[in-house]
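Quick note —
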Amino acid sequence: MIQESGPWRAELLDIAKRLEKRKVQRRWTDRTAFLIERDVMIGAYAVRRLKESFKVSDELARRTWPVEIHEPRGRVPDVQNSHKFWELYDLEKSRKAGLSLANVCNQVIHSWIWGFAAREDELGLGGVFISSDRKRKKCLYFLATDTLVDLFRSIGEEEIYHVEMRRDAAGEMHFTRIVGRGFGQEIAEEFELSDDLKRAMDANDLQRRGSSG
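Predicted structure written out below.
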């Protein structure tokens, strides 16, 4: 579990800057492709590690991120043809959808299909095509560069400033609420307690009154 999130968030902000510059990059080499894949992969891993360490707010964890979905043409993607994804999926047609933070990270980290797309002006990185081993037979996702930049920057800039925890019946502590703020956002001074926490507090109050009477 991550104890200090600062270095991870700083790395995410650096990755977001580099990806943003790729949007207008004109010269591409084999190393460029490696650097982009490295940044996206490390960024997705960092986000998942932060989330699993309870360093991401409930708001961002619940947020969906826009993707485009391409249907397969019929042939099954396998180890021989996965590099020719444009022949396996209908890239001329797509439908818009949203993926959770966890799903975006998992698609990147477990990507079976991986490819790049140029912007419409063909001057830079438009986004990436990805599909995990579990999803490759069903669809291909397209993640725009702007979406990746927004995702990594949102997590990188976030500051967690309020958490609520509660022990379950077995005595194990769990996070019940995580609140954060983005760069420049105000801190909320009051918090509405969850219904479960309200019931638990009411039950404890009744128990104390009963024992004192």
